[in-house]
Amino acid sequence: MAMGWGRLFGGKRREALVPLYRAVAAAARSPTWYGEGGVPDTLDGRFDMVVAMLSLVLLRLEAEGDAGRAPSAYLTELFVHDMDGQLRQSGIGDIVVGKHVGRMVAALGGRLGALRQAFADGDLDEAIARNIYRGAAVLPEQQAVVRQGLIATKEGLDAQSLERLMSGTLT
Q: 74 and 17 in contact (C-beta within 8 Å)?
């Protein structure tokens, strides 16, 4: 039986998800993506992997129904806060930060929908080509590394309890 959100996290709901968000970011930084997988080791490439990993976690939370709604919202808030901070740190001014963050959140929503559909269809290749490689040519074996990594991550997420996931364990 799933533990209630309030009982699990008390009054510090968003802060309770910091370990999970850190685990998402760490998974996105795995050298395998950028080496064997050929994901560009650029700001855009790293953003794409953070969004891909976050999307997989959000899909897992979505499967929890009502119990996953609040954690999904708080995890998305952490993403927004992180992206806002990254933009400010890179020198983007206050006036345009909101527009950039808005585009990033829209990208998250688009990637989430693309991965949801790709897993439902059983074919990730088009979603990977469009949302991770952004249409750039890659070797089939590189795309296979990314495909298998996403599948393995999703299977690991699906196999664990909500409580374990909330503690920051992705696999």
A: yes
Tell me the residue range of the domain where 55 lies: 12-166
74 has pLDDT over 60:
yes
The answer for residues whose C-beta is within 8 angstroms of residue 109's C-beta and 6 or more apart is none
- Judge whether 109 and 122 are in contact, CB under 8 Å: no
Q: Is the pLDDT of residue 88 over 70?
A: no
Question: Would you say residue 3 lies in a domain?
Answer: no
Residue 14 belongs to what H/E stretch? helix 13-16
pLDDT band at 63 (very low <50, low <70, confident <90, very high): very high
How many domains, the chain? 1
CA-to-CA dists, residue 69 to 21, 31, 60, 63, 110, angstroms: 16, 31, 11, 10, 18
State the average pLDDT over residues 71-93: 81
Residue 152, in any domain of the structure: yes
